[in-house]
Amino acid sequence: MELDSISAELVEHALGLYLAIAWPGREEEKCPDMNIEGRGAAVLSGFTNESKRDGDRRYVLRLGNSRYPHMKLVVEEYLLPGEYVFEVDTHDQLDLKPDYPDYEAWQVLKEANRQIKAEIEQCWREEKIPTYADLAEKATRVERTSGGVPGDGCKILVVDDEREIADAVATLLITEGYDVLLAHDGEQAVGTAVRERPDLILMDFQMPRLDGVQAAIRIRKTLKKSECRILLATAALMDLSAVAEADGFLLKPYSKEILFSFIHALLGQRSGT
Q1: Pairing between β-strand 58-62 and β-strand 72-77 as defined by DSSP bridges
Q2: Beta bridge mates, 156
Q3: What is the rounded average pLDDT for all residues in the chain?
Q4: Which of 64, 149, 169, 232 has the most CB within a 10 Å radius?
C-alpha cells in the first residue's frame, strides 16, 4: 500500500484489532491518547519515527500486551519502494544465554509474544489490512532489473521465520535469475545448507530453535567462507564479536536495491578466503 493510501480509518481499525488481541477487556484503557486523522504521513504523526536516515521508512507505536510492555505496532516500508505494510514487532530480541537464571521463562514469554503477533497479523490479513503477505504477492509482479550480475544463477538459501518475508525475498531473487532455497528456522537452515551447499545464505538473526548466529556457527563447521557467504539480517542490536562466521550484516527493514547490492558484492567475493 502506498503511503498516501493509508487513512485514519485504516489505522484506527488496525489499532483496534491489535488492542483487542493484545489487551483483551482492556482495549479502551490501553488505547493511546493521540489524534488519528488525515492520510499518509499526517495520520502517522503520532507514531514514533524510527526511519533510517537513508533507508526505508518505519513508524511505531509501543503498545505492549498483557504480559509484556514492549511489543510494537509498526507501519513500515519494506523491500519494495513505496510499499507500506503493518507489522507487529515483538521487540524481545535480547540475546540471553541458556545459563541465564531466567532463560526458560524468557523463552516461554517469547513464544507467547510470537503467538500474539501471529494472531494479530492474521486478523489484519482477514480485514484486508496490508501485511507482509501483500509484499509476497506484489513481488511476483516485479520485473527483472539486472542484466548479467556477479552471482547470476547462483544458489541462495533464504532463512526467515516470517514466511511472507521469505517468500517475497525468494520471489525477487528468482526474478533476478537465482536458484532459491527456503528455510524457516535455524535448524532447517543448517540441514539445508549442509545438504544443498548454497553459494550464499541470507539469514534472519532472530529465529526460534536456533538464532542466526548459532546456525551460522554450525554451518561454518561444514562450509568455509570461500564456499558459502552468509549475510545476516537483523532488526536488533547484536554483539559483532559473536558473529565472525558472517560475511555481512543487513539492517531490517531493507529495500530490494540494498539487498541486491549486498548479494552482488558478496557473491563477487566467492573466490576469496
Answers
A1: antiparallel
A2: 180, 200
A3: 89
A4: 169
Sheet holding 84-89, edge to edge: 48-49, 58-62, 72-77, 84-89
Cα–Cα distance, 34 to 50 (Å, whole number): 18
Domain definitions of the chain by residue range = 3-130, 145-267
User: What does the block give as the cell for 162?
Assistant: 516470517
Peptide bond preceding 253: is omega within 30 degrees of 0, i.e. cis?
Answer: yes
- Any idea what the Cα angle at residue 140 is, between residues 44 and 81, rounded to 5°? 35
Residue holding cell 494479530? 120
pLDDT tens, residue by residue, 181-222: 999 999 999 999 999 999 999 999 888 778 888 899 999 999
Q: Which of 102, 112, 106 is nearest to 66 (CA)?
A: 112
Residue with cell 515483538: 90
> Which 3-state string (H, E, C) describes the chain?
CCHHHCEHHHHHHHHHHHHHHHCCCCHHHHCCCCCCCCEHHHCCCCCEECCCCCCCCEEEEECCCCCCCCCEEEEEECECCCCEEEEEECCCCCCCCCCCCCHHHHHHHHHHHHHHHHHHHHHHHHCCCCCHHHHHHHHCCCCCCCCCCCCCCCEEEEECCCHHHHHHHHHHHHHCCCEEEEECCHHHHHHHHHHHCCCEEEEECCCCCCCHHHHHHHHCCCCCCCCCEEEEEECCCCCHHHCCCCCEEEECCCEHHHHHHHHHHHHCCCCCC
- Give, to the nearest 10 degrees, the angle between helix 8-22 and helix 103-126: 140
Dist CA 77 CA 242 (whole Å): 29
> From 3.20.20.100, 3.40.50.2300, 3.40.1190.20, 3.40.190.10, which CATH number describes the 145-267 domain?
3.40.50.2300
